[in-house]
Structures are given as C-alpha cells and as structure tokens.
What we know:
The structure holds two protein chains of two kinds. Chain A is α/β, with parallel strands linked by helices. Helix content of chain A is 27%, strand content 21%.
Amino acid sequence: xxxxxxxxxxxxxxxxxxxxxxxxxxxxxxxxxxxxxxxxxxxxxxxxxxxxxxxxxxxxxxxxxxxxxxxxxxxxxxxxxxxxxxxxxxxxxxxxxxxxxxxxxxxxxxxxxxxxxxxxxxxxxxxxxxxxxxxxxxxxxxxxxxxxxxxxxxxxxxxxxxxxxxxxxxxxxxxxxxxxxxxxxxxxxxxxxxxxxxxxxxxxxxxxxxxxxxxxxxxxxxxxxxxxxxxxxxxxxxxxxxxxxxxxxxxxxxxxxxxxxxxxxxxxxxxxxxxxxxxxxxxxxxxxxxxxxxxxxxxxxxxxxxxxxxxxxxxxxxxxxxxxxxxxxxxxxxxxxxxxxxxxxxxxxxxxxxxxxxxxxxxxxxxxxxxxxxxxxxxxxxxxxxxxxxxxxxxxxxxxxxxxxxxxxxxxxxxxxxxxxxxxxxxxxxxxx
Amino acid sequence: xxxxxxxxxxxxxxxxxxxxxxxxxxxxxxxxxxxxxxxxxxxxxxxxxxxxxxxxxxxxxxxxxxxxxxxxxxxxxxxxxxxxxxxxxxxxxxxxxxxxxxxxxxxxxxxxxxxxxxxxxxxxxxxxxxxxxxxxxxxxxxxxxxxxxxxxxxxxxxxxxxxxxxxxxxxxxxxxxxxxxxxxxx
Lengths: 433, 186
C-alpha cells in the first residue's frame, strides 16, 4: 500500500538564453519582442495561456478598456464592436489567438517552483525539469493573491468569507445580506451584481478613484489615451510608490456603457459605510472618514475632467465632442453607520475586495523589499538579468493594462538584449584570455 | 510660477519635512515614535496633564519646555471650572492637527495662506455618559469642523487642501478609527 517515495532527481530540461515566467498578455508581448530580436527564449506557464483569465475571474467580468484599445505588439482587436468591452472568454480567445499568431514558445502545464541565481545566470526549477538561463522575465502577473486584511480573523464563524478569486456568480451566495469591503473596480462591480441579485449589500469604502465611463460622449479611456495621461512615465510622477498603489478606478465594461460610482450603487439601494477599521466582539467598526474619502475622490475626478477640458480646448477637439459636464458629488447618508453587528444574521457573506498582490514565493533572488515587492527600476530588477513586467505603473500609467504591455516590452527587451550582448562579450573575452 | 514659488511662506519648512519623509522611508525604525503624557488629580474633577518627553528617531526626545493642560468641568456641573473639559481638549487636538496639516500642504503646493480659521462643534447627549440611556454613546455623536480660509488659491484648490490635510491627519485618524486602549493599575 505504501508507495515508495521516488528519488527526487530533477531532470535537467535544458539551457536557454531567456526564461519568461508566465504566458499572459505581458509575457507574450515580451516573447514577441524577444523573437523580433532573435533572442532564444521560452515561456513557462503553470496552466494554459491566459491562465488567470480562465480560472481566477468571476463570470460577468468584462475588461475595463474598450475593444479598440485592446492591442498587443503586431496584433489588435478586429471584431465588429470596437466600443464594447471583452468578456472573460473573449479575453482568453484574444490572448490565446495572439500566442498562436506569434507562435510563442510556451511550455504549458509547467509550474515554476523556484528561480535562483547560479553561475552565469539563473536556475529555473519547474515540476517538468530545470532550466538554466542568462536572464529571467517575471511576467506572472500582479493579481495572483487576493489581499485579505488580518482583521478577517475576527469575523464570526457563521459569516461566509469570499475573495474575488473564489467568487463566480451570485448563485454561490447564501440568501441574505452581503458586506463588500473595498470600493475599487472589483468592489463596486460585485456590490452592484449582488444587490441586483436581491442581496441587501453594504459597501465599505476607503480611498477610491471615481471616473465616469463616458465623458463628453467619449470613453474615459479614450480621453486618458489622447491626453497622454495613460502614457505618463514612471520617472515623471511625484510619488511613484503611491502611484503604483492607487486602486483601480470605479469602472465597469457594460453593454450600456454606464458609469459605476457610489451614486449609482446607492440609487440601486446599496448602503454606504466608511472603511472597515476593526471588528470587536463580532461588531464591524467603520471609519468616520467616509465624507473625506468621497470628497477626495470627487475633487480628483474634477481635476481629471478639467485636464481633459483644457486639452480639448487647446487641441481643437472642443467642437467635435459633447459639451463640458460635471457630475453630482457623491451622495452620503445623513449619518453614515459606524458599526454593524455581524452576529445578528443581517450579514451572511463578506466579500474581501481589498486588492491583490503578486506571488513571489518561488523567487529566490534577493530583490524583494520589506513589503515583498520586487525592487526594480521600470521593470529592470536590482539583480542583473532579472526583469519584471505587467505591474501597475511599471513604466507608464497604462503598464498593467493589455494595451500597456507593448511599450514596456519593447523597452525592456532592448535593455535585455543589451545585457545579453554585454554578457556574451564578457564571456568570450574570458575565453579568449 | 517661479516668482510665486519664491514668495510663498506659511512658516512651514517643507524641505525639512520632505527630507524627514525620505530619511524615514530609508530607516523605518526611526519612524517609530511614542507620545507620552502624565496626569495628576488635583481636586474634584480638576486634573493637570503635562507633556515633556517623547521617543522618536531612535532616541529619547524632549519638548523645549513642559506644557501643562488643566482639565475640569464647568460650573453647571457643580465643578470649579479650572480648565477646559477633556472633550474640548480633544477638539483642540483635532483642530490643531488639521490646521497644521493645511499649512504644510499649502506650503508644499505653493499656496500662500493669509488666514485660516476653524470652528468646531461636537454634539453630545449626556444621557450616555450619565448612564441614563444605554443606547446612547458616551462620546460625541459627531464632530463638525468648519474652515474659513483666505488664500491665493481657487475654491477647488482650497477644498483639496482641506481634504488632503484630513487624509494625513493623526488626530483625524485617532477619532475616526477605533484604537485599542489598555488601562492598567499599579
């Protein structure tokens, strides 16, 4: 009955110049750029191409960016609905189609167990054998792990806790009330869906980013694109640490192209409370800062709209688009609730829409800061030959979006090519000596 | 813009503050501060609280001088009224913190302040504190802070200044979020 444990002999899979960890949109964009430079490389993918889109997204999710904006190096959306927003299946098809189109050298079903420095580069250990390479591109994504605050441990046991990775659709929910914690794109979309499905939803919000879906008749992403806001570079912003941490804007990609802000939620009956600050004796405690976080978001949205208006005036667009609009300030309850009894049965489910973080548990290279993030300069990690892509504001505001991959991949592949060249020169010099 | 930069002076040394921020980012241990106060009961509801020493930047620190705060209750509570009520001291803390923040943020954003005046109001139902009605809390049922600010800035920029100050304020955080309090007796 007892199977003899196999000897842990790891097959040596091979040697290659570059290993790209992950075959999502940013790994594939990098692959395209490496191929264009004739750099020998391989993409290692734990599942299938676009794996997170296949397994870690809820059913109704659509991209936050319109179809016309979906493009990767040498590839763009060519369907019939440029102003629509891709569903999850369409994103999977789009990314998989790209992998085929560029004939990306992807090894699917290959889980990277560790990456560690070795002589002349890195050793990449996988469940399908080990690779030696000169450079590694970490393209494993920014949203691997849902972040759940420590205070979740104090939630009474009979309240179900869900992360966005576990949530598929509202049929999963027990009847009754839901507390959605977090009001970024994920939080407001899930709150809306659950309220529509008949669950009384309370949404707890700290700082958030408010944006209209359409402004002056155009998609907000179009404005961000033409005004150059999306292209703003990482070395041009005042506080990069903060810029990289900004929660995703309150947007949804829907057929109606409607806005999804707190006002939209409260009109539907969702109850608004402040940031979840503590849970004591089964009572959730909400911050009294709700008014201010809403004021901050309203002011910030108005500054963005003012930037857009100014750009439209200066560039002769003012006549081609609809007139200037301003949106009503966020409506607040007369006296926002500061507490909620989680034992009373009014809340059956808590959804932690409190952000995501990358999983670098396999990265055995000393480049992580005290918060567990890779120390890097625009994707060039502190360890020579190590690169990272696809993170929020990696090199530009658009870096974590599909359409943001191209510029970053071009620049990082150029740097990587230079690194390999210098490496080759060093190596041949040593041989010559 | 350049000339404005040269003339804005709210008496805040922003370079020093930004320098400290940079330094404390590099040395997180130095950022750990401890604030202290000692309190002596005088008589009746009258007490005197003093502050002098605190800890920060990795070592013991001291105020230039000792500051003393007398707290008491007004005569309508049959007290001697030798000082502000403790809850008024809380309002003083909030007002001082938000206003200091406004000055600092204004300096950083090149906004010259001419006058900043805050009026604070906090409602309280004494049925809570006196144990008359268990459904009424002891503390404030809300705090209203109203600012009148005269500055070289648009209405929106001033609103943004006040919002940013709340976002970064320690006392605002202390009041709006729960804090674990441990009280021991020797």
